[in-house]
Amino acid sequence: MKKLSLISLGILASLHVANAQTISSKKWADLFSYNNVLAMKEDNGKIVAAAESGIFYYTISTGEITKLSKANGLHEVKISAFDYNPQTKTGLVGYQNGSMDVITPDGITYVVDIPIATGYNGSKKISHISITGDLAVISVGYGVSIFDLRKKEFKDSAFFLSGGLYEASNEATIFGNKVYAVTNTGLKSHEMNTNFPVYTTWTTEMPGSFKHIDSEGVLSFSSATTAYVSNGGTPVPIAQPFTNVHDVVVTSGSIIVTDLSRIYTFNTNGTFNNNVTFGEECNTATKVGNSVYGGTIMSGIKNEAGNSFRPDGPYLNFAYKLNVYGDNQILVSTGARENRFNTPVANTKNPGFYYFNGAEWIHPSYFKPDTNIFNVLDVMADPVNPNEVFLANYTFDSNRGVYKMKYDAGSKDFTLVKRYNLGTEDIYTMRPVGFASDEVNNVFVSIGFANDGPPTGAYVAIGGYDRATDNFLIRNAAQNFGAAQKPLYQDGLLWLPNPRTNNFIAYDAKKTINTSDDKEYILTQANGFAATSGGTLSVAIDKSGDAWIGGDIGLRVLPDAATAIKTPATAKVEPVIIEQNGLGEELFRDGQILQIEVDAGDHKWVSVDGGGVYYLSADGQQTIKHFTKENSPLPTNTITDIKVDKKTGKVYFASYDGIITYQGDVSDVTSDFGNVMVYPNPVVYSNFKGKVTIKGLAEVSNIRIVDATGNIVHSAVARGGYYEWDLNNQRGQRVASGVYFVLMTNEDGSDKATAKIAVVN
Fold this sequence. Notes:
Elements: E1 28-31, E2 37-43, E3 46-51, E4 54-59, E5 65-69, E6 79-85, E7 90-95, E8 100-104, E9 107-111, E10 128-132, E11 135-140, E12 143-148, E13 153-159, E14 161-162, E15 165-166, E16 171-175, E17 178-182, E18 186-191, E19 203-207, E20 212-215, E21 219-222, E22 227-230, E23 236-237, E24 245-250, E25 255-259, E26 262-266, E27 272-277, E28 282-288, E29 291-296, E30 301-302, E31 308-309, E32 322-325, E33 329-333, E34 337-338, E35 343-344, E36 353-356, E37 361-362, E38 376-381, E39 388-393, E40 401-408, E41 413-420, E42 431-437, E43 443-450, E44 459-466, E45 471-478, E46 488-490, E47 493-498, E48 503-508, E49 519-523, E50 536-541, E51 547-551, E52 555-558, H1 561-564, E53 577-580, E54 583-586, E55 593-598, E56 604-608, E57 612-616, E58 623-627, E59 641-644, E60 650-654, E61 659-663, E62 677-679, E63 683-684, E64 692-695, E65 700-706, E66 712-719, E67 722-725, E68 738-746, E69 752-760
Parallel strand pairs: 63-69
Antiparallel strand pairs: 1-61, 2-3, 3-4, 4-5, 6-7, 7-8, 8-9, 10-11, 11-12, 12-13, 14-15, 16-17, 17-18, 18-19, 20-21, 21-22, 22-23, 24-25, 25-26, 26-27, 28-29, 29-30, 30-31, 32-33, 33-36, 34-35, 36-37, 38-39, 39-40, 40-41, 42-43, 43-44, 44-45, 46-47, 47-48, 48-49, 50-51, 51-52, 53-54, 55-56, ...
Organism: Chryseobacterium hagamense
Domain PorZ N-terminal beta-propeller: 49-202
Protein name: ABC transporter substrate-binding protein
């Protein structure tokens, strides 16, 4: 009989592994949530656990926890399945997009056969993985595949195709020489022989709808309310009614059934042993010695005493906007909008916001039991009372408004101080969006859809917090603009993008919250915004005072912005024109610019929806780096916010799939030199073939690189606090092995610095 497989069905043209692909480095670190534990395996007193965005290792005797994520070795986020073989120290990670990572002591191999498959167009999510020896059975929407962990290649695949429809394998396991798979129509089995790929030769061992299965010495599987055990013969029900089985795990001496928050253990013959409750819903559980450990949805691994173990991180991965403060403190909002930044997107888990206090992540208990709806678009610390925070709750219900909450360091929790309805209880109007503060600590909030509806139209408004009356004073800023974005305060003005109309607002509050003398300046499409753009989304002011304005389509720059915008009739926003193949082309002509951030060296970080993040030179003419989820640890190509700690150079990227950081090369740039560093150094060609970075430079640095005899081999002017040398001399040839001296002066020659670079070709 003809042998059918993924390859012969046209699903795969060849084996696709990305063994050499390295997308992480020591510059990256994740701030992912590890609360939602999907699968666990015990290895000699250590629990290896898979969460949504990474793997972590918990050593029971010492309490040590280490983690593995896209920031330091994995190739994806959104883990959907995992298993681990303690004998070979091999793990297999499955992702929602169908790709896999093979983790061995020798490294991590990326397998992308399923995502690029062309013969099957249904869901390619890896729903379950079960390892037996050097083989793993993979459950996918089309059925099952056998994967050889030693060779890192697929063997046979069975497509559960009947009547033109595919039936998904919910889970599967290898027991003896057979693969057993549970589906919505029954427990199915087949020997691993030449007929394995032929679905008509599979046997339905037991009809019914089954979700979970595992084996080790015995076979156990379950429906939603009943578990079964089998030694290869007729399955026998375990005499215990269940409410909603979430997982079945078989160890060498036990069958462990996870039923919501309660974990039941049985002997391998199905005799009841014990039950444990963890006080919250669990995905899975395992047994180490005589102790049961639960893999919870919201608290990582829990032991029977109720203690939680997981890498520290936010409550959930979902993040929208960031505010970063001194002492490494972070406030993270979790809201979202759709339909032209109009309609709130409800998060069913109602996270509110997260807070990192410099040592650990805090999630306010206020949001955990609360049945109210929260869609927090921004959260900012009060500059006068840093232990109090303002949050903007953008919803279509009676909870809409600004909230003030107070942090207590003793309890490590927040309590509600007050809700501000912004002058109305109309659920569709006065929707708060984002905060900013000025140099005298006034707090402002941008408001969308003020006085929404006829006959007045939908205004954009600005609210100023009046400390004397503990309320917000509101001034309608622009009629019929509808929605608003988070404002930026700089150069005495509140800069306010407008996402629903092709306009941009600068608001002068005169450094007071008194609205009587306020003034607004409005730029329209006539000022130069792209005719095809539906609105403005983001803004940053650089060291030259230029406003970089990101649009729904395209990027514009307003030179000398604080002065130019005060004469809107003559102000002109301009695209950045770059040269491509000898022709001028508009930078980001068709891109939606979600966020722009300026670092200490005046370089620009730009987030393009679906296009990742670009790191540009000060004038935008040069792309220094372009990070995407394909070539970096970014979890997605849609980054909703970027923040730069200008003292350290650390860059924070927020997304709906988690937060990740990148240690930039530019920090605290001034007209003088800082702590000049060169890396890598020495430069050994066999180990490193990139450019050498020199950081800690002045804003403008004159650089001469000379050899040991004083001959100049390279010279340049560096701007922005750092420079990259490609190790070529002035003729474009790679320099010879040896020691080279870097001689540097700042722009006016008042400061100087030196460094050495050793080159080994």
